[in-house]
């Protein structure tokens, strides 16, 4: 059995999460028997990245806080030394048209980074960039109306994921692709997504992941979302990835302490 590892978690540096002290997350992880814990906060975004100013404020920390974040992680590593291994990470965004922004962050902070979760959260849509995971109403208004059909939105989403894989493969840090099926977050509140389309796109991605040498974030957060009800990666896909030697790392995507380790039982049951 491999190490018990929660590879995707957030902190009080996330303004759509919780302000709970880090100890609550880490004590929960220790209580559940985790041996390794990756802190992978959302990094800053380019100013004005999305049009909705109030939402922008919530998406990510301002640039000035990034040094404080890395200092915070370091402090936790010292405080918990010998009890749980904490790795220092970021959930980097694939920013279409602004890859330079992420490059600059990486240049500056690469030496502090042990883990990158590389995620697609944004697609071009009505009036500029839109979040794919904000609310079902926002999805309908900003993306579904823009692309016309779910099939078109889903196709564009996976096109972005494929481009993200290629980019992620070039990063000089241990990297995994974040929640590959995040596009299903509001599936029960939106027109249905064709299962065949998902299968076709994911199957095509397996060789690309293998070639890029990156892993996947087996993200269980979808289990906690009423309109999703399942993890953001199908079991058949995870099994096939494992057969190809692609690292499949469990991630709770905890945005509050009680999220830590949720869905681990599901993950453990079918990966054993
Ligand atoms: Zn978040
Ligand atoms: Zn994410």
Can you describe what's shown?
The chain has a 7-stranded parallel β-sheet. Strands 5-6 form a two-stranded antiparallel ribbon. α6 runs parallel beside α7 (195-212). The mean pLDDT is 96. The termini are close together. The chain is α/β, with parallel strands linked by helices and 272 residues long. The protein is globular and about 55 Å long. It contains 9 helices and 9 strands. Bound molecules: zinc ion (ZN) (2 copies).
From the structure above, extract its key features.
40% helix, 272 residues, globular, alpha/beta, seven-stranded parallel β-sheet, binds zinc ion
List the helices and strands and how they pair.
Blueprint: E1 5-6, H1 22-31, E2 36-41, H2 53-59, H3 66-79, E3 85-93, H4 99-109, E4 115-119, E5 122-125, E6 128-131, H5 136-147, H6 150-168, E7 174-177, H7 195-212, E8 215-219, H8 235-243, E9 248-251, H9 264-271
Parallel strand pairs: 1-2, 2-3, 3-4, 4-7, 7-8, 8-9
Antiparallel strand pairs: 5-6
Bound molecules: zinc ion (2 copies).
One zinc ion binds next to loops.
């Amino acid at each position: 059995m491999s190490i018990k590892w929660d590879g995707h978690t957030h902190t009080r540096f996330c303004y759509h999460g919780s302000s709970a002290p880090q100890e609550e997350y880490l004590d929960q992880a220790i209580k559940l028997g985790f041996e390794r814990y990756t802190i992978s906060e959302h990094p800053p975004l380019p100013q004005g990245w999305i049009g909705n100013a109030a939402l922008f404020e919530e998406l990510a920390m301002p640039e000035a806080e990034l040094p404080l974040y890395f200092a915070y992680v370091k402090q936790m590593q010292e405080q918990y030394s010998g009890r749980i291994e904490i790795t220092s990470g970021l959930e980097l965004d694939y920013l279409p048209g602004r890859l330079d922004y992420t490059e600059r962050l990486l240049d500056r902070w690469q030496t502090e980074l042990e883990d990158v979760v590389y995620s697609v959260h944004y697609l071009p849509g009505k009036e500029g960039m839109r979040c794919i995971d904000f609310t079902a109403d926002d999805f309908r208004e900003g993306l579904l109306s823009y692309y016309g059909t779910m099939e078109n939105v889903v196709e564009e989403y996976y096109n972005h994921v494929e481009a993200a894989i290629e980019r992620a493969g070039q990063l000089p840090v241990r990297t995994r692709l974040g929640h590959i099926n995040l596009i299903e977050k509001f599936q029960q509140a939106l027109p249905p997504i064709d299962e065949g389309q998902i299968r076709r796109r994911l199957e095509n991605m397996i060789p690309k992941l293998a070639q890029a040498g990156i892993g996947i974030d087996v993200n269980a957060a979808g289990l906690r979302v009423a309109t999703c009800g399942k993890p953001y990666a199908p079991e058949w896909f995870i099994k096939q990835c494992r057969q190809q030697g692609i690292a499949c790392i469990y991630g709770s995507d905890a945005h509050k302490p009680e999220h830590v380790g949720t869905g681990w039982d599901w993950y453990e049951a079918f990966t054993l």
